[in-house]
Amino acid sequence: MTKTVVITGASGTLGCAIAQHLATLGWNLVLTSRDASSCQPLAKKLRTAGVRVETLSLDLLDRESTETLSDRIAEKGVCVTHVVSNARSLDALTVGQDGLAQPEPFISELTIDVVGPYRLLMSFARDERHNLSGVVTVGSQYGEVAPNPALYDGDLSRSPVQYGVAKAALHHLTRELAVRLAPTVRVNCVAYGGFVGRTDDAFQERYARLAPLGRMLRTTDAGGPVAFLLDDAAASAVTGHVLVADGGWSVW
């Protein structure tokens, strides 16, 4: 059977890296973003690898957009077998001048990480036009452990509380869905550490001192864990698992 994976948040750095890795393994792809046109450059590049690539818009804060994605993909004659739930929004990670998370971004972050993915994944699981067998959600080390103040020079407002809380909820949603969709659908999570890209050199140096591997993650670290968990042969006995890929951050 043709393997086709939906990747939400595919226009972001992490989604792009995962998509490129899976394309090299022969996966057909459905790339989504709030603005589908932002996925077009990546789609054009990946089609040269000989895989089918579709692009669609998806806004997890919009219920209709979320719950019609399975319909919109089926209308293109595409049967989805796997989903990587990766979408995020930096807009939901704002805090007030007093350092407190305001209700609106807190709720938005929970919707993007938990409520939206839940509704999205259930729509695919219940749609007979698709043949869902595997799901990978994208979590975080901060869904497993709290932030270390030493990394932020004591300023934890730079690590918004809603992010870790939502990722912890996502990790448990993964376990819930692994039970509720068994035995036909395996549901797992990759909890990544911090990636190089949005931080300055001083932050990266502090991070390196706090991580056993002595560095932040690179985009080349992103695809392998997801590919393993999506593999219905290699990971056939793995479900409800949170695979921590954080360079050892959470072991001490």
From TrEMBL:
It comes from the Bacteria. Pfam families: adh_short_C2 (PF13561). InterPro entries: NAD(P)-bd_dom_sf, SDR_fam. Belongs to the short-chain dehydrogenases/reductases (SDR) family. This is SDR family oxidoreductase. SUPFAM superfamilies: NAD(P)-binding Rossmann-fold domains.
